[in-house]
Design brief:
disordered N terminus, seven-stranded mixed sheet, single chain, alpha/beta, 16% strand, Rossmann fold, two-stranded parallel sheet, disordered C terminus
Length: 273
Amino acid sequence: MVGPPTTQSALAATPRSEASTRVAALGTILGVWAHPDDEAYLSAAVMRLALENGQRVACVTATSGERGTADPASWPPEKLGAARRRELQASFAALQSGLGDIIEHEWLGYRDEHCADAASEAAAMELGAVIDRIQPDTVLTFGPGGLTGHPDHQAVAEWVSIALSSRPSIRRLDAVVAASWVEHIQERVEINAYFDDGYPEIVDDAEIDLNLVLDEALWTVKDRALRAHATQTQPVFEHLGPELWRAFSIVESFRTHSISNPTGRERMLRATP
């Protein structure tokens, strides 16, 4: 971390009515993610706005995130996986109003850090069955690089590509890192510490289809949802401090998936005569 923290976000909040309208256009939403907390970091505000709009919101999580620790002696996989499952439910509860709105959820049951070892076609078929039950208008997920470069994220992106190849009416939005967010935070946070080598891919704001800068009320809800994932987020919060923690998580950005930015399977299909 370099430079002093700031008490003021340099990014102007998206007006609430405008944000709600943009999210309403997504219809029924299904998030497809690799680990508990992916959904909160990348789409907590989108989910909350959708619930407020009366939209159906569902989420699929591929693994329990049972290996997501730097202290496996204190957090063996079985213990951590159970804790992260509880944290996910608490995070969903933080996003719901308590007035009957729910976030539907399904686990796929794959092993953390081993999604890339799974048979992609079989995983996509399992995911496809969930998609057919939910009937989403929009799927939110990772882009081909997995946003951070994590192999589990990349595998999930591949499964979504296969599943949606036979469901072309469903819109897919890939989570991205916006250039405006990088400009906003790069002098105060060592961004590369949170991404694998070669990542993130930084996307010009003009290419982004849904770019939300959270207002104070939305941020407060997202903060609660993120803090519910305490095994993962508490160390980040302690490292960044409250002001940089807010700046780090204040934006949610997605662009429409394109074959011009393909997954491995899409490259293979394009190369087939």
